[in-house]
Structure formats: structure tokens, C-alpha cells
Amino acid sequence: MRIIISGAGNVGHYLIKMFSERNQDVILIDPDKEKLQEISSHFDVMTIQGSATSFDILKELEIDKTDLFIAVTNYQDTNILSCFLAKKMGVKTTVARVNDDDYMQQQNVELLKNYGVDHLISPELLITEDILKHLKYPNIFKTLSFEKGKLDLISLRIKDNNDFHNKTIIEISEKFSDISARIVAIQRGDETIIPYGKNKIYNDDIIYIITDKNGKDKILNLLGIQKERVKSLMILGGSKIGVNIAKRLENDYYIKLFEKSREKSYEISDQLKNTLVLHSEARDATFLKDEGISRTDTFIAVTDNSEINMLSSMLAKKLGVKKTFAEVENTDYLDIVRNTDIDYIINKKLIAAGKIFAIAFEKDIISMSFLIDTDAEILEFVTHTGAKITGKKLKDTNFPQFAIIGGIMRDNETLIATGNTQIIENDRVIVFALPDKAEQLAKWFK
Fold first, then answer.
1. Are 341 and 271 part of one and the same domain?
2. Using one digit for the tens of pLDDT, what is the confidence trace for 209-251?
3. CA 280: distance to chain centroid?
4. Contact 288, 315 (CB under 8 A)
5. Per DSSP, what are the bridge partners of residue 414?
6. Which of 177, 204, 281, 323 is least crowded, fewest Cβ atoms below 10 Å from its Cβ?
7. pLDDT band at 53 (very low <50, low <70, confident <90, very high)
8. CATH number where 190 lies
9. Are residues 9 and 114 in the same domain?
């Protein structure tokens, strides 16, 4: 596949990594010579200094012979214009990153399609929606929904007094006998395990369970975990994400938002009607105690500084907050964060890259997501006629050990996979896999 990427920022850089690791033919355009040199020193990609809105550059790169054009600069107007030009000059598919939520309204999405922008990606909106979804279950380590909530992925940290400690997957499955659920991944320190029957669960493991809409509460009850409702939030950072969360929740929750810029805090205060906006960096333990941190359910750190977000979230946890969220854009820190008690890590480039990767391989993959605190990827496939995966029970297929099938959507029905499950054509199948296996797995569903 021939791919042109406009923008060598965080999202562009990560896309280069993903596509080059998968041996795709990638070209990067950016005005910043230093960024291009840094990327070309690490990856085997062609780089062009300049703007993707230049007719000469697009002609020189033979845009009409290109499969995918991705515009992910920090300027949405530039992204939209470059997609418009690329489409008019013959590229097959275009993707534009936007920052303004208005662009993501359905009528505007359709309007821009008419002008050559096939797909719009808003990382900030994706993250906002993700956080809002996670706030429903503060005692669950993490959660992810499929098919509008018909299937859920939840993750829980195992304690030594937990019924799952020192049990095999088979033994735990017996406890699930009246619950539709399957353990699909285990995170043990820095190791990600795709589990099968004889694998054991140990104290401090994080386990990932896929279940149907009725199974989540049953699993929590089984483990003695009480369901609690979030009532109060502290948000550190008046970023777009922070403000969007406050706007969506301020009528139902008690919210304090901290912003270090005095001018910006006044602007945010004008936008928010029922949120207390304070001019402060909120990194001091004494200050947080004075502001009632111990009585706060959730702490969300979304400043533009990964280190501040990590440290403040760890401090908030130490001071008694039940659930913490931290935006960590520096991927070098992700391995470190795994070993902290921060509950949820936010990373714009990973969430955007997953969406864009699925677009790139949409014939084979419906969607792709990353579990930031593990090495696992979540892939969704449609099963085609005559596929290798069909015609047998899953236990008889020799499905690769680096992956496990978790859930299946069949017409209006959702199923949790077991060894006796048989997949048929047109099933939508959710697969959990170790990294960089998407193309190998796609062959099973073609």
C-alpha cells in the first residue's frame, strides 16, 4: 500500500512507526526539516520538506498513484484543504484530523465527504467519549465497549484475597458457568499474556474480561466489588479535553477545574456555568488537601505536560482519590506508567492511530484499538465466505496462540466465544492479539 502522511507531529510520528513496521510504502510531508531528519534516521521512509497543500509537491509525489492520504498536522484547515486537493488529484482515500467538535457532527461529516474528505478523526473527542464511558464504573480498572454496549471489555486487578488468585483459567471459567464472559488477556508486570486453559492468575495481575451487557455486574458481585457512582471530579488542565468533560458533566457532578494560566482560566470560567474554575497548577499536596481531594471520586490530569499529569495523578491516588486518569503523550513513559497505580492512561496518538490503521486496512479490519497498559491490540474482523476460521469449532481450528477470539456479533445477537463456538460467514469477530499480528490474523477471516 502506498501512503502519504502530512504532519510529523505526535500522531504522524506514531503512524510512521506503525506503517513502516508493517512494510508499507510511506512518504512523509512536513515543513520542519529537523522533524523530518529525526524520523528518517529511525524509519525507512521518504520525507519531503514542504506543505501538502502545494500542487507541485502533490504532483511530484504522484498523488494519483497513492492509496491513502492522511493529514494529521495541528491545523485542521490545512488538513481539510490538503485532503480536498489530494482527492481531486486522484488519491483513493483521504483522512483528516480536526480539532473543532462541530466538524464531527453528522451533517458536517457528510458535507466534507462531498468535498473529498473521506474520514474525519478528532483525537480529543475520542478521548473525551472514552473518559465519560469509564466514569460509569469507578471500581473497574478499565472498560471498553463494543456494539454500543452489547459487549464490554473490563479489567480488574487481582488481590491475594480474591477468588481468582492462584486459579487456572479453566477453574475460573467454572465460576463463570452462569455468566457469559471470557478472560482474553493478562498483564503481569511488563508481560502481556494471551491466556488459555492452563494459565494461572496471580496476585497483582490485571485481567481483561469480555462479557455481555448483563455480565459486568455479575462479575463485580462475584468478586465482591461494589458498584459506586461518581459524584465529584477534579480536572487538572483547561485543555480541550478537560473543558469538554466539564461541559458534558457539570450539570450532574460537582467539578473543580484547575488551570495554571490566569487568562485562560477566566476564558474557561465564561464557558462553564456550573464548574468551579481555579487559577492554580494544583500540584501541591497541601493545596489539594485544602481543596478536598480526599472527598473527590475522580481526578483527571490533562495538561500539556505528561510528567505533571503522571505525578499529580499518583499524588491524588495517594491522597485518597478512587480513580485517576492521566494524559501521557510521551510513549517512552508508557512502560513506566504500567507499574504505577494510575487507573487510566490517555494517549491521543494511540487512539487516533488505531482509528486510522483500521481505515487503511478497512477491507480486512473493521476497527483496531490499543490497550495502552498492555502490549495487546483489539481487532475486529468480518468473516468472509470460505474463510479459514469457519466450518469448525474454535477448539479444532489451530487458531494462533498469539491471539484469542473474545466476542462475536451475529445479526442482532452477541456471543462470548468458547472452545465449542463455531464462526460463520458475515460474523463480526473481536480478537485480542499481541502486537503487529493484524495482517496474519486477517488471513483467517478472508
1. yes
2. 998 877 877 877 777 766 666 789 999 999 999 999 999 999 9
3. 29
4. yes
5. 409
6. 177
7. very high
8. 3.30.70.1450
9. yes
